[in-house]
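#random but structural
TW: two for the price of one
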Amino acid sequence: MFKEQSIRIIPSGERHTRDYGWLKTSWLFSFNDYQDRDNLSFGDLRAFNDDVVQPGEGFADHRHSEMEIVTFVLKGEISHQDSAGSQGTVAQDQVQRMSAGTGVIHSEFNRGSVPVHMYQIWFFPNKRGLLPSYAQGTFPAAGRRDRLQALASGEGKGGLDMSADATLYACDLGPGGAIEAGGDDRLLFMYVTDGSATLEGRRIGRNDQVRMKGGATIRSDEGAELIIIDMPDKGR
């Protein structure tokens, strides 16, 4: 059995949400014009943005450095290009990892005909001074039914390689499904995309998040779609 250390459940209504018309976004951590010294990061997780971008709209040229940024597209597609000449499109069930490293300027636009719903997840890198780079992969939903599907990892757990001490998973629990995640001396972050689940007997619903130390058994009676991030506890 896991040794539970602490569990914090943050309901969906406490997300910092903005609706700009072309973009509807919920920032789970201090970001952009949402400044909160008490909500800067969780372990090596620096940002988690739940974005919906309308067709023909997007993020113009902007710069990143010294950050590992993972984009997971739930619906639609997002196109990108950068100052090094790289360009491409990330579609539904695809994941892109960008190592910003020493610095890169890039843009992201929805050039499709439907809104794109995506998560953009930022991690502190475990090594500075890397050259900017990208990786991309497809992760079909069948691969996460009632199990953890690694999307990106700097711990050799599968998915896209990244230079961060964390593993990002997706999981779709069917009715009555259950998984175990985390462990002693680990941090666990969870975000509910859809449905509901119970975590050590405590209910979490759509767009709720969990930040905890230790490990947990996650169950769902009705079914749930989850993002789970497992990280070492560095005392950050």
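TW: number two ↓
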Amino acid sequence: MTKNWKDKKDSFPIVDVRDLQNNFLPMILHKAKQVKLNNGICVVQSFEPKPLYSALEDLGFEYLTEKISENEYRVYFYRNEVKKITFESGSDMPFKPTAIVNYKTIDDVLAGTVVDFWELIWDKEEPAIDMKTKLLLSMSNAIGASRFRQATRELIKAYSIGASVEEFDELFSLFAWNQGIGYFSSEVGPSTVFGAYKHIKKREKEGIERKVILAELMDVFGYKNPDVNTFFKK
């Protein structure tokens, strides 16, 4: 990063999301996609918004972070390249870590700590375990703990970066083996994660391409689904 643009960062339009209590990441990504080459945007948050870094880097942005106070971070994003991101590349993986906003409701320092932990687990440079394997492990752990909301999200993310139906077949067979037929029948079978798996398997048998299936998954099992979303809705 050359940062040869930092002298004009104060002219970047500001997006202040400190008071937002809902999912602000899609909104920022939408605004970032509208930024033209050699222009920028400034995001203001009460904790360091590290999940944005890799997401906007995949769109062709460099960034510069300034800590103004304990409750104010300003991140300047400058677009020096226009990149097209896709599910297949992993760059536009669905389900960003939006639940971090829930911790901000409690305490900004707590939110910052959670972000640091997220970065260690999910955004580590040169990890020993590849992302698809991490997601399948996380999905398996979630099902073992009856966290079907999380499991659904992990399954869809894993599918978005190349997990196959055959891998899911073997995983669900293992769930039946390890947790027992009774538990699988009464708890796993009716769950959203099993519903997402069945949808993938059915649509692939029909010859539908992965990109279309992903769009369908996000429509049925995405943020608007109360059994998958991480935000409380009245």
